[in-house]
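Case study: NAD-dependent epimerase/dehydratase family protein.
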Amino acid sequence: MKKKVAVLGGGGFIGGHLAKRLKEQGNHVLVCDLKFHEYLDPNQIADEYQILDLTDPLQVEKAIPQGCDEVYQLAADMGGAEYLFSGLNDANVMSSSALINLHVVRECVRKGVKKVFFSSSACVYPLFNQEDPTHPNCEESTVYPAFPDSEYGWEKLFSERLYLSFHRNYGLNVRIARFHNIFGPFGTWKGGKEKVPAAMLRKVIEAPDGGEIEVWGDGTQTRSFLYVGDCVDAVLELMASEFTGPVNIGSEEMLSINQLAAMAIGLSGKNLRIRNLQGEAFFKKYGFPCPLGVMGRNSDNRLFEQKIGKTNFSPLIKGLTETFHWIEKQVVIESSLIK
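Here is what the predicted structure looks like once written out:
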């Protein structure tokens, strides 16, 4: 049955992929964002596309239609490690995202929305559970006692509790997922707001054969990365389930950042060295402390598989290969425009 759905933040990376899938499934899709999607045509991802500032409650009223079947709330002040973990943008990250969620959750109740998805983050997990790069603990129940490593994580944790309180007090039907490092094509790949895989691939593509790429920190910090198509699959499976969450959506294929760099170099076929930069040398070059985040983070998918179903996510190298070729194409296009 055709549903009326609103994707808030549909002009962003994950939101754009999600809106596109929902439209392909035959739903009537309304996208709201501060901007048009940089790489996807509005007609590909939406039946209606509104440019709105969701920190403004009057504009949130326009974003959510009466009797909307589903709202997917992905709008946030977002970026990569430099943007989120340098400390330079904390006030905007916390205030803008909190305002959006405060207005959205109230409007969803007021408009009688049938089901709401909120995109949280693995950044909610406590710092002390992620100090060992080989054995991080991101099981959902370990989020308390709370001690996220960034203000971004604190805001996400607050907003989880906000949606759950409206679920308890007003009967709002919510689903909450904690995303773990989602990557893929049609997203930011330069400028400081890009995620680690995109930054790594861009550095490798732009580096001359025989040269080097810079990796922030000593490279032993570990992460897992989930391809965006798999993320969208999991979100839709969560929405179709009876489980409220919060639940992890991420890959369990953990590797070090230096290993990720080596994979990117391997895809390029170039002979490149890895230069790790941290401490005083990093501060001298960039003017702020090296934004490492936690030392180890990996998705724990046991709760997802117990409550929703088996995860069959793609191997990292598959998604990385697709993203490599897409970013390579963007670099070529940009170079031709400069010339």
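For the exam, be able to explain this: DSSP finds twelve helices and 13 strands in the chain.
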